[in-house]
Amino acid sequence: MSLVEYSSSEDEPSEIHSDAKLELPAFLTTLSGDSLRFDAREDDPEYHQHRQRSFPHEIGNWSTSVFIPCPGLSEQLDELFTNLCPNATVSLGRSLYVMDNPHLSLSKTWVVRHHWIEGLVASLSDALENVRRFDKLDVLVNEEGTR
């Protein structure tokens, strides 16, 4: 077995005096133009059915909630909402919109990292597998009053 001999720190200068600035590596100069990862867009509710975000969007985070789709309800509610929304808008002093995909929310919205999604879906599927059907409809508003 052989030993490796290293020079002692005494062989090196004790202080390096340099006022010269190091150059920024070329790959870093292009990061500000990388709109996929670093572009902070203004939130436009038009992109997500006029919903207001509860928290700002961050790359890699997925806005998540647990809900049960109600596909048969869509046709039944379309006419009602189309007639109701203009009158309710005047009464409430705020705009109401018809939902594209009616659903029953089972949770609040929260942030999930992308790599957690598959495990979360599997766990929820197992936990909710034997939930019984509901027998009536009730319309509720979230805590923020935005949905």
Automatic annotation (TrEMBL):
Keywords: Hydrolase, Lyase, Nuclease, Nucleus. GO terms for cellular component: nucleus. It comes from the Eukaryota. The keyword Hydrolase applies. One of its GO terms (molecular function) is lyase activity. The keyword Transferase does not apply. One of its GO terms (biological process) is U6 snRNA 3'-end processing. It catalyses: a 3'-end uridylyl-uridine-RNA = a 3'-end 2',3'-cyclophospho-uridine-RNA + uridine. PANTHER family: U6 SNRNA PHOSPHODIESTERASE 1. This is U6 snRNA phosphodiesterase 1.
